[in-house]
Amino acid sequence: MKAKWREQSKQGKVILHGMYGNSDVLPTPSPFVLKLETYLRLTKIPYEVDKVDFWGPKGKTPWISYEGEHLADSQFITEFLSRKFGKQLANKYSIKERAIGTMTRVMVEEHLYWAGVMWRFAFGGKDTFQKVLRGEKSFIQWLIFRLIAPQMRSSAWSQGVGRHNETEIKAIMLNDLRAISTVLGQNKFLLGEEPCEDDCSVFAGLASAVFSTNSPLEKELNDELSNLKEYCYRMKDLLWPDWESHMNKLKQN
Ligand SMILES: N[C@@H](CCC(=O)N[C@@H](CS)C(=O)NCC(=O)O)C(=O)O
Questions:
Q1: Distance between CA 203 and CA 200 in Å, rounded?
Q2: Which residues are in the Thioredoxin-like fold domain (predicted)?
Q3: Does the CB atom of residue 116 touch ligand 1 within 6 A?
Q4: CA-72 nearest atom, ligand 1
Q5: CA distances (Å), 127 to each of 92, 124, 195, in order?
Q6: Which stretch of 13-17, 47-51, 130-134 has the lowest confidence by average pLDDT?
Q7: Residue 88's pLDDT is what?
Q8: Residue range 84-111, pLDDT digits in tens
Q9: Helix (H), strand (E), coil (C) string for the chain
């Protein structure tokens, strides 16, 4: 299969391999896939999506094929493509601002993400998987969830965040979101007036909490964290005008 993609990727386009589907509120349940597709849209780098062969060379999703090569990890991919296509969007910001962007991204991907995993897979998943848990979806989707959930909980346990209870997980999420909200302040985007690479990660990391019905932090996002909610809608309006139609397409499939 991977050899096939080597050939196809020699035609100038990036092939984004990612896990899609099974969500009524997001184009993809994976924040890392959402980050990468948002980045490709932001930079206008030509790409096509492969939703089938989504486990990459490092056993995770997403990954890309480009010019006959395979590359894993959304951050390595972003950095590689930014260099290759001369799209270093964060360069308009100072070194210190970029450092703040890096720290925010790392917190979202390596800390907030795991709290989200626990929310989805241990405490009832009051988001994209809620309907699966209630059995409102197909048997296959229920089965996939049943197979994936223990694996995700075990990864979260090894990482450490998975050892906390529901109240502690919610406190972790709230703390992280408060920090991002402070960094964002009155900015339109994470570091200022223009979006950069790290916006794709932050948007993707927040999307599940913001766009889910019955988000664990719904009240806070409508109140003290409302700048985060507005930010996510700004990113969505800018880069995902087809967000809803994407969802409708998923529902039909
Ligand atoms: N650092 C990786 C993380 C990717 C990642 O963890 N993806 C998840 C899906 S959201 C995954 O593949 N999980 C499967 C596993 O860890 O076995 C990246 O930025 O691409």
A1: 5
A2: 31-121
A3: no
A4: 20
A5: 36, 9, 27
A6: 130-134
A7: 93
A8: 999 999 999 999 999 999 999 999 999 9
A9: CHHHHHHHHHHCCEEEECCCCCCCCCCCCCHHHHHHHHHHHHHCCCEEEECCCCCCCCCCCCEEEECCEEEECHHHHHHHHHHHCCCCHHHHCCHHHHHHHHHHHHHHHHHHHHHHHHHHHCCCCCCCCHHHHCCCCCHHHHHHHHHHHHHHHHHHHHHCHHHCCHHHHHHHHHHHHHHHHHHHCCCCCCCCCCCCHHHHHHHHHHHHHHHCCCCCCHHHHCCCCHHHHHHHHHHHHHHCCCHHHHHHHHHHC
User: What separation in angstroms does the CA of 226 have from each of 69, 175, 243?
Assistant: 42, 15, 21
CB of 141 within 6 A of ligand 1: the answer is no
Q: CA-CA distance, 208 to 32, in Å (whole number)?
A: 12
Task: State both tokens at 234.
Answer: 């700004």
Q: Domains in the chain, ordered, with CATH?
A: 2-84 (3.40.30.10), 90-241 (1.20.1050.10)
Distance between CA atoms of 84 and 36, rounded to whole angstroms? 15
**pLDDT average, residue stretch 220-245:** 96
Q: What is the pLDDT of residues 159-182, one digit of tens each?
A: 999 999 999 999 999 999 999 999
CA of 72 to the centre of ligand 1 (A): 10
For ligand 1, say whether the CB of 153 is within 6 Å of any of its atoms: no
**Which ligand 1 atom minimizes the distance to the CA of 35?**
19
